[in-house]
Structure formats: C-alpha cells, structure tokens
Amino acid sequence: MEKKTIIQVQKLGFQWQAESPFLVTMHHRDMYPPGNEEQGPNVSLEGRNLGEDFTIKDGFRMYHGKTVPGFPYHPHRGFETVTVVLEGYVDHFDSTGASGRYGNGDVQWMTAGKGCLHTEMFPLVHMDQDNPLELFQIWLNLPAKKKFEEPEYKMLWAEDIPVIDSVSANGKKSTVRLIAGSLLGKESLEPSKASWAKEKENHVGIYLIKMEPEASITLPAVSETLNRNVYFYRGNEIRVEDKTIQQMNRVKLTGAEDTTIINGSAESYLLVLEGEPIREPIAQYGPFVMNTQEEIREAFQDYQRTQFGGWTWGRPDPVNERNAGRFARYSDGKIEKR
Fold first, then answer.
1. CB 335 within 8 A of CB 329
2. Which intervals hold domain Pirin C-terminal (predicted)?
3. Radius of gyration of the CA atoms of the chain, in A
4. Are 113 and 150 in contact (CB under 8 A)?
5. Among candidate residues 74, 68, 10, 62, the one with its CA nearest the CA of residue 39
6. Which of 37, 54, 279, 321 has its CA at 20 to 30 Å from residue 22's CA atom?
7. What's the pLDDT tens digit per position in 125-135?
8. Tens digits of per-residue pLDDT, 197-213?
9. Is 336 helix (H, G, I), strand (E, B) or coil?
10. pLDDT confidence of 1, banded at 50, 70, 90?
11. Would you say 122 and 132 are in contact if contact means Cβ atoms under 8 Å apart?
12. Helices (H), the chain
C-alpha cells in the first residue's frame, strides 16, 4: 500500500496551531509608518482600542502598547519563546536585569523557566521612512524537569545563522535559514541550555524556507514519532504528493517518510516546525505552561508574591535609544553588539 505523507491540512488564523513539543506560533506583520520622537507611530491613534488593539487599521496594530506598539511587561513560566524577526526591531527588557534590541533576521531564544517578566516593544526607529515589522513568535514547551530552570535568553544573530541553498533538478533554488536542528548536512546554532531542543535525539527543527517559482525541496525522514508541520504563509500554491495546497495553511506531515515540496509559479515562504513530542500532561493558563492545575495556581501565587524578581525599568513599556543599534545586555553584565 502506498504510504501517505500528508496527515492533515488546516487553515491558519492569528494563532497557528502547533503540536508538541511546540505550543503555538504567532505571526505578526505590520506596516508601521514613520516614527515620532517617542518611537511610536507618527500618525493619529484616535479610534483605536489602545491597550487591546489587535485589529489592523491603516496597516498596523498597537497590540498592548499605548505609545509604542508591542507588548509591555508580562510574565511567563514553564516554557520558551523563540522570536524570529524577519524585518523591523524588537526591544527586550526583563526582570533579570537583561535588555537588548534585535531585528532584521535575528532570533531571540528565551527560557522563561521558573518565571520572568519581559517586554517585547516594537520601536519605530526611522522618522523619515516607514517601519515595517514581520516576526514569528514560537512557544516551545519545557519538560517537567526543566520548568524551574533559571530564566535566561540568548541571541542567535542573523549573521551567524546557517543558510542553506538547495538547488532542484530544474535549477530552481530553495533557501533555508536553519534556526534549530540539522538539515542537508548542516547544524544550527546552539539553543538555550535548558531547551528540549538541546538534546539531539529530540530532533527539534525550526526552518524558514524561501522557494523560487517551480523549485522543490525534500524534507528527510526522521522518525515514526516525529511531529512535523509546514506552515505555508506566503505565496500562491505548493504541491505535496498529488495535493495542491494554497497559502495560509498548515500541513501536518509524517516524520517517517521523505517528503518533497514542489512550489508553484510564485515565490513561496514556509515555516517548518518539527520535533519529538514531550510526552507529559500540559496545564496551561495564559502565560503559564505547567503539568498540573495545582502548578498553575502556584504560578499565579508566586507571581503575585514575587513579581518573578520585580521590575526595575521604571515603566511597563521601556524602549532603547533610537540609535542604540542591535545589542544584547545579559543579566551577568555581558554585552554583545552587532
């Protein structure tokens, strides 16, 4: 009997459904205008539900931001965020004393562990031109034994992330940015030390694929138990097996078979998330992901009592100086600049 590689096809919404070890993926794409003196939009914000602005208006959203778009300080516990910025900038501040600015291809890998507060603000650094933003935030679960690790983050700078060019038989090219895992003989940079992705046998892969028209690429077989999902988020159509798939669909594939993806007549963009599942119960409430409801209650109590270390940045939505550039300042005082 012929083996099928497609298990399910599903339309994508604002939050993209994921499978263990991943929890959810968010895709943000906003066409921000030139910035003002505060690095917010230099246009009227009248008519917006500031603080809860998730509706596209004039090409952008303010999210939870009231002056600068983005996400003022908020808590996490029990999982990791992998933030992949394709265009634009993100300003990071957290309750460990760390801060930074990253963007235009950079990836921040943050382990919330036992709990931290952090911000994700989108500073509009250009006053004389538009400030488009596009990013993915991928939530990656932690196993029970790692949920109370110390919070930390590390930067995967754009210049260091491996890029693979795969040329199909017709001479058309697919370009892969290897955020996590191994593919086509190349290895990614190291994830955070507590991550499920740290152990090679967990086969965690995060890939961004750009395909020329009529290009093809093959995802190799890994294991019978692998969860593999392809998010086709921009383009016209792709073909897997004998099925044609339109953009803005998630395609769940078997991990036990080589799978060839053939692009249509337009440039296409894909996000691939794959990995061995964490075979543990999940209890989730908002920003806390634990194994039991009792642990969720404890997370709320700990947050109310300790604020996960407290907030020393003076305001809930701090941003760096306009000309700060790309940098990371870690909780131990170490500084990286790009």
1. yes
2. 209-309
3. 20
4. yes
5. 68
6. 54
7. 999 999 999 99
8. 999 999 999 999 999 99
9. strand
10. very low
11. no
12. 293-306
DSSP string, 15-28: EEE--TTEEEEEEE
DSSP result, 130-197: -EEEEEEEEEEE--GGGTTSPPEEEEE-TTTS-EEEEE-TTS-EEEEEEEESEETTEEPPP--TT-GG
26 and 82 in a common domain? yes
289 inside domain: no
Closest CA to 302 of 117, 93, 115: 115
Q: Which two tokens stand for residue 113?
A: 């562990």
Give the tokens for residue 17. Answer: 């459904």
| Domain CATH code at residue 235 | 2.60.120.10
Q: For residue 201, what is the DSSP state? A: G
Q: Per-residue pLDDT averaged across 160-173, rounded?
A: 97
Take residue 168 and report the two structure tokens written for it.
Answer: 């199909």
How confident is the model at residue 4, as a pLDDT?
Answer: 82
What are the structure tokens assigned to 46, written together?
């009248």
Beta bridge partners of 272: 207, 230
Locate 273 and state its tokens.
Answer: 């998330």
Check residue 3 and give its pLDDT.
66
Residue located via tokens 């999902």? 229
Which residue segment(s) compose the domain that 173 sits in?
162-275
**Do residues 133 and 199 both lie within one domain?**
no
Contact 34, 126 (CB under 8 A): yes
Please check whether residues 171 and 150 belong to one and the same domain: no
What one-letter code names the amino acid at 278? I
Question: What is the signed CA dihedral for 186, 214, 206, 4, rounded to 10 degrees?
Answer: -100
The DSSP element (H or E) to which 218 belongs, if any, is: strand 216-219
Distance from C-alpha of 113 to C-alpha of 60, rounded to nearest angstrom: 32
Helix, coil or strand: residue 202: helix
Q: Which residue shows structure tokens 């209650």?
A: 297
Compute the residue count for the chain: 338
> Which is nearest to 87 in space by CA: 128, 136, 43?
136
Per the structure, the count of domains in the chain is 2
